[in-house]
Amino acid sequence: MDISTLVKLTSRAWSLTILALMHDGVARRQAPLLAASKASRTAFAASLDHLVSLGLLERNPGHGHPLRPEFRLTPNGVRYAAIASRIIDAVPEEEELSLLRRNWTVPILAVTPRPRRFSGIKSDLPTITDRALSISLQQLEESEWLGRDIDTSARPPFPTYTALSKGLEISRAIGLRL
């Protein structure tokens, strides 16, 4: 998975959850997926449409039995659903899932398996603003998914950020090669 695809995928809060649920065998109809995700109808519908527009899901063609799946994963969707399932499995608690659903959490963790400077993270995520990156780094640091170290040997001193604990698990689940 490349970083631009990851950024697009995580731009909707429930996209990873929907893919993970489909990978884990939840019925591929809108009602069971909505119930299992615990999302609002509006946010769920927006994420579902987003996944269709990315070409990861498609509506099942034709009419038939009422239990026939409404949606199915495309070949790319199958690959990304496996990754989404590994990401969601790394974060079992609901309060942590809310952090995972934030726009930039997963892309930032994907690029920080090793120590990175602010400018290095920003260059890997060209569409992120300085403010969004700063806020996201602070939230990830507070949750202890990201560590911040100050390198005082350089002039001027600068911080580096590295994924820790669950953040590192998520980074490894993504398996992004930079």
From TrEMBL:
Domain HTH hxlR-type positions: 91-178
Matches recorded under InterPro entries: HTH_HxlR, WH-like_DNA-bd_sf, WH_DNA-bd_sf
Recorded superkingdom: Bacteria
Keyword Transcription regulation attached: yes
Assigned keywords, A-Z: DNA-binding, Transcription, Transcription regulation
Classification via SUPFAM superfamilies: Winged helix' DNA-binding domain
UniProt-recorded Gene Ontology molecular function terms: DNA binding
PROSITE patterns for this protein: HTH_HXLR
Keyword Transcription: yes
Residue stretches in coiled coil: none
Protein's UniProt name: Transcriptional regulator, HxlR family
